[in-house]
Specification:
The structure is a single chain. The protein is an alpha/beta fold. It is built from nine helices and twelve strands. The protein has helices at residues 16-27, 33-38, 58-66, 95-128, 146-155, 173-177, 183-194, 207-216, 228-244, and strands spanning 42-49, 53-54, 71-74, 81-82, 86-94, 134-136, 169-171, 200-204, 220-224, 251-255, 273-275, 288-292. It has a six-stranded parallel sheet. It has a four-stranded antiparallel sheet with strand order 3-5-1-12, with helices on one face. The chain has a two-stranded antiparallel sheet with strand order 2-4. Helix 9 links the parallel strand 9 and strand 10 (251-255).
Length: 294
């Protein structure tokens, strides 16, 4: 869990500030008519957490208001869970600027907190089931909002998985079919172009495909859409035959349709990574509101 070793916010590249600028420009591309109505008097607003959840997305919320010459005082640390109604922070500055940033800041915080909340809940379930390895998200994120969503996974204690196509080579069925239907050829090609520093993962539909990928030099094999029992049988067989027997180094990832309701079925000591998009796709947002003190 990244938060055990420092503040996750320290991993952010300052480039995210340009994203915030774009979000603000999208929400108010020309005149701010409502801002004209309220004027430039200074005031403050309370950020209220109105549904239970884990707070995540603080750097993005802060940057929205920093760009609008407002300040944010937090009364809750990022990664903390709360029950409604909770006074999470106070925003101070010109009232028109508080309201100008309100919706952008709330949308970002609600989405990020929802992902962190769901990530933490699923992680708790697999830990209770005895799983001690990695629970990860996927690359099935919202275009333009990936950084926020991956950040939420980290705050919730999960692995964000590869960030983009350049982070790790993942060879799926389409890659294999387009490469003369040869896992071995596809892995060798990926290794040749990516070099020693880029890991290669292969999506496999059977134990036989996983064995071919491992023999070809894959660093990770994904057992995709296996049943819970199928995962346990295949992962144990691969580890015992190819790691213990042949001394090959590789990781086993399990993915495909995993949810809170069924993930415990896939818990197995021979599986190194359980990945699921359920911690960030279709996740319920945490409800926040920003209320001017009057």
């Amino acid at each position: 869990m990244a938060s055990m070793y420092g503040q996750v916010a320290h991993s952010l590249n300052p480039n995210y500030k340009a994203d915030v600028t774009r979000w603000l420009a999208e929400d108010c591309p020309s005149f701010d008519y409502g801002g004209f109505v309220v004027g430039d008097a200074h005031g403050e607003a309370k950020l209220l957490g109105k549904s239970a959840g884990m707070l995540a997305g603080v750097p993005f919320f802060d940057e929205v208001f920093r760009q609008l010459d407002c300040s944010v005082e937090w009364h809750l640390s990022e990664g903390s869970s709360f029950s409604p109604v909770h006074h999470c922070a106070t925003v101070r500055g010109p009232v028109r600027k508080i309201l100008l940033g309100e919706r952008v800041a709330l949308n970002t915080l609600a989405r990020c907190s929802g992902i962190a909340t769901k990530s933490a809940r699923l992680l708790s379930l697999v830990r209770k089931a005895g799983y001690r390895h990695t629970l990860a998200g996927t690359r099935k994120t919202t275009p333009g909002f990936r950084l926020v969503e991956k950040y939420g996974m980290l705050i919730g204690g999960c692995d964000p998985h590869r960030y983009d196509l350049s982070t790790m080579t993942m060879l799926k069925d389409n890659h294999i079919w387009a490469c003369q239907n040869s896992i071995t050829r596809a892995v060798h090609a990926a290794k040749a172009v990516g070099g020693f520093s880029i890991k290669v993962e292969v999506e496999c539909q059977s134990e036989e495909e996983a064995e071919e990928a491992i023999h070809a030099g894959a660093d990770v094999v994904m057992l995709d859409n296996f049943s819970g029992e199928g995962v346990k049988v295949a992962s144990r067989s691969l580890k015992e035959r190819l790691r213990k027997g042949e001394g090959r180094e590789f990781l086993i990832e399990v993915s495909g349709g995993l949810t809170e309701e069924n993930v415990e079925e896939f818990v197995c000591k021979h599986v190194d990574i359980i990945s699921t998009s359920s911690i960030h796709q279709g996740v319920k947002h945490v409800d926040f509101s920003l209320k001017i003190v009057h």
